[in-house]
Amino acid sequence: MAELTKDKGAKLADPVGASIDPATQELIARAQRLNIDTVFDRAVQMKPCAIGLQGICCKNCAMGPCRLPLPKGGIDGEDTRKGLCGATANTIAARNFARMVAAGAAAHSDHGRCVAEVFMSAARKETDAYKIKDVNKLLAIAPHFGVATTVEVDGAVQDRNLDEIALEVAEKALNEWGKAEGELDYLKRAPAPLYEKWSKTGVKPRNIDREIVEIMHRTHMGVDQDYKNIVKQCTRASLADGWGGSMIATDLQDVLFGTPYPLQSEANLGVLKEDHVNIIVHGHEPVLSEMIVAMSQKPEIIEYAKSKGAKGIQLGGICCTANEIFQRHGVPQAGTYLQQELAIITGACDAMVVDIQCVFQNLANVAKCFHTKLITTHPIAKMEQENVIHIEFDEHHALEDAEKIVRLAIDNFQNRGSEVMIPQYKASAIGGFSVESVQYHLGGTFRGTYYTLNDNIINGRIRGVAGVVGCNNARTRHNEAHIKVVKELIKNDVIVLTTGCNGIACAMEGLLTPESAAVHCGPGLAEVCETVGIPPVLHMGSCVDNSRLLLAATEVVKAGGLGKDICDLPLAGSAPEWMSEKAISIGHYFVSSGVYTVFGLHLPTSGAPVFHDYLSKEMEKMYGGKWDLEADPIKHAHMMIAHIDRKRKELGIDKARERVLMDMADRQALEG
Questions:
Q1: Is the peptide bond before 65 cis (omega within 30 degrees of 0)?
Q2: Which of 132, 200, 616, 653 is 20 to 30 A (C-alpha) from 606?
């Protein structure tokens, strides 16, 4: 075991203060004993820039950076702060915010483009590795692209050939990134009143790439200098993410790999096994990890592992790749974003395979201290360190690439040192609640809608719905805000839909099991969970799968009785420990879709109070959704609950506590 060189006099993180998770605490302490640098220590040693934190530092030209700190005591009266070119604090903050939206939308949408390209290869029969697994999902999404699923022959309607449908869907999907005219096809999946709001305000995305490029143009020095106009383009680009690139990615992944349905697994670093070859997959795109799952299950590969002294192969996931293979295959979730270095520090990780997004460059430095092979796989995501192996993924040779990676990990098992320390902490978890499976569990096989969910909201068993999502952030205690927010919501009868690292945090805490409802939920939600047999926190996938939350909300609107638009619903969104630019894009497309959205920690807008108020007040007038901010997790949850209660009152169901099902006449009366 090598030792990482670092400043031995540097201040170190308190393991208990850094995380609520005991496995994480143990491995932070181990890293410190071994003099290995981790994100938790770096967060103590490096303080954030106070001006950048407020969003009022402009570095968009070489005359800067121009820093516009708030005057002592805040702004009282006219704000006279200006950069060298005269840009105001509002303009600077709006430009910085917009560039975060552009980067976040680009990340999710480029993920979607990659999936669409693989889908095209499968439709053209150019690869044996990928085939259409969910025909029903293909037939369901085809009409949204304007692709017919039937054809008239001699006056009779017949089903079209599936290969023809798949190829046309692939062509239409890929066209969404760069079509020359029109608007995104998926926009009309939104409730009609929301679509009309987008039309009225002129924010319907034209194509995905154009909206991202236009943000970068507008925020170049000397172009758009009206923060309201800049936010308008933010809205276009974020909608191109949520109702475009992300939604297309989710749908095509479901068609290729199967639409998730609930299955059981485990979560936390205790899922690693000392007597197995341990392979960690980390990142966001499932196109390669799906092949690694398939390869690790082949009998000849398992026998090869046994020939090297291992009892088998244990896969585990970090970040959203973890969510992808968890929801479809039950592969254990090894940890969240902040635990990625710690997976290697167990000494039991034989290979860590990374693709794109949220991957620490410091993984290479940590891997030097152990036997772990760190393997990058994506052409746009390499590392400069010499000990990193690059095996570039190609969908035309996907199984060969996966076999090369798995055999490399197996061969490395014999190089493992004797000082293995796997924390003995893991929890059972159930995931895989797609829009379709929630409809099955809460709507019924034959009813085919969200009818039962709506009834339980109307009669008060379920107070409302919360989407709690997002990353970890080393500037706050790992997982604490995630868990406190979620527990406070379910205690107050708010059912939680989760994605991303929040989903993994909830899994680690045991909140993704039906049994947790009796312990943590209010009486109404507990009764529903017990009756239906579901957890109070429904795991809906990776961060790109936040599009499932939009469609779930749309299904609630369609089921009736709770208004005509997403903004009418007793619904709120939350990102308690957000970190990524993707979170800003996600937050903005939720706000622009009518969802009250609360972020923890801070927003990079506080240094421009007028701009901040525009996001938190004026947007609500246009779209029905608004940004809000609260670092304290209990207050954060109660802001969401207060919003849910306001919506219940507006719907006239705030006093509806009788446990009765409503017939259609009752629903129509509510709609009136």
A1: yes
A2: 200
Q: Exposure pattern of 468-478 as b/e (b: 16+ CB <10 Å)?
A: bbbbbbbebbb
Ordered by where they begin, the domains of the chain are: 89-257 (1.20.1270.30), 269-415 (3.40.50.2030), 428-671 (3.40.50.2030)
Rounded to 10 degrees, what is the CA torsion of 354, 357, 358, 362? 60
Q: Which residues are within 8 A (CB) of 67 and not within 5 positions of it... i.e. 6 or more apart?
A: 51, 56, 57
Buried (b) or exposed (e) across 234-271, using 16+ Cβ within 10 A? bbbbbbbbbbbbbbbbbbbbbbbbbbbebeebbbbbbb
HSE-CB for 509 with a 13 A CA cutoff: 27
Name, in order, each residue with C-beta under 8 angstroms of 539's C-beta and a sequence gap of 6 or more: 323, 326, 327, 429, 430, 431, 432, 433, 498, 499, 503, 506, 507, 512
Is residue 152 helix, strand or coil? strand
The token pair at 549 is: 């939350």
CB atoms within 10 A of CB 400: 13
Instruction: Say how far apart CA 359 and CA 540 lie, in whole Å.
Output: 22
Burial of 140 (0-12, 13-18, 19+ CB in 10 A): middle
pLDDT tens, position by position, 301-337? 999 999 999 999 999 999 999 999 999 999 999 999 9
CB 169 within 8 A of CB 293: no
Rg (CA), the chain: 25
- The position carrying tokens 């071994």 is 34
For residue 406, count other CB atoms closer than 10 A to its CB. Answer: 27
| Residue 150, both tokens | 């039937």
User: By the 8 A CB rule, do 248 and 176 touch?
Assistant: yes
Cβ contacts of 9 within 8 Å, gap of 6 or more: none
Q: What would the two tokens of residue 539 be?
A: 């795991």
What are the CA-CA distances from residue 546 to residues 51, 123, 129, 570, 587 (Å)? Answer: 31, 26, 27, 18, 10
Range name among 104-118, 165-179, 433-447 with the lowest pLDDT average? 433-447
Whole-number Å distance between alpha carbons of 607 and 50: 10
Are the CB atoms for 540 and 549 separated by under 8 Å? yes
How does pLDDT run across 348-382, given as a tens digit for each residue?
Answer: 999 999 999 999 999 999 999 999 999 999 999 99
pLDDT digits (tens, 9 = 90+) for 464-473: 999 999 999 9
Q: What is the pTM of this model?
A: 0.94
- DSSP for residue 378: B
Neighbour count for residue 553 (Cβ, 10 Å): 29
Over 80: is that where the pLDDT of 449 sits? no
User: If you write DSSP's letter for every residue of 171-216 in order, what string do you get?
Assistant: HHHHHTTT-SSS--GGGGGS-HHHHHHHHHHT---S-HHHHHHHHH
Calpha distance 216→296 (Å, rounded): 43
Question: Angle between the 89-123 and 286-296 helix axes, to the nearest 10 degrees?
Answer: 40
Class of residue 212 by CB neighbours under 10 A (exposed 0-12, middle 13-18, buried 19+): buried
Q: Tell me how far apart the alpha carbons of residues 266 and 327 are, in angstroms, rounded to a whole number.
A: 11
Which residues fall within 8 angstroms of residue 672, CB to CB, at 6 or more apart?
none
